[in-house]
Amino acid sequence: MKISGQNKLAGEVIAIKKGDVECQVTMKSGEHRIVSIITRDSAEDMELKVGDQVVALIKSTEVMIMK
After folding, report:
1. Distance CA 47, CA 53 (A)
2. What pLDDT, on the 0 to 100 scale, is given for residue 58?
3. Which of 27, 50, 58, 67 has its CA 20 to 30 A from that of 12?
């Protein structure tokens, strides 16, 4: 699959919390954790499970830098 987005981070799913409508998916990329909220339907369509190798595609209107 090709996509135009450039802000991609590869990692591994380390936790999934399923709700009635949404899922909270936590992945680890290097030493960083990324948390994403996706629909439960999407999680089930992708058959996501802990240990899966995934890519986070980050799309944002604003990125903040802190030091």
Report:
1. 12
2. 87
3. 67
Alpha carbons 15 and 33: distance in angstroms, whole number:
10
Determine which helix (DSSP H) or strand (DSSP E) holds 23, and give its type and residue range.
Answer: strand 22-29
DSSP character for 21?
S
Contact residues for 43 (Cβ-Cβ < 8 A; gap 6+) = 16, 18, 23, 25
59 in a structural domain: no
How many domains in the chain?
A: 1
Angstrom distance (rounded) from CA 27 to CA 36: 8
Note down the domain range covering 19.
8-52
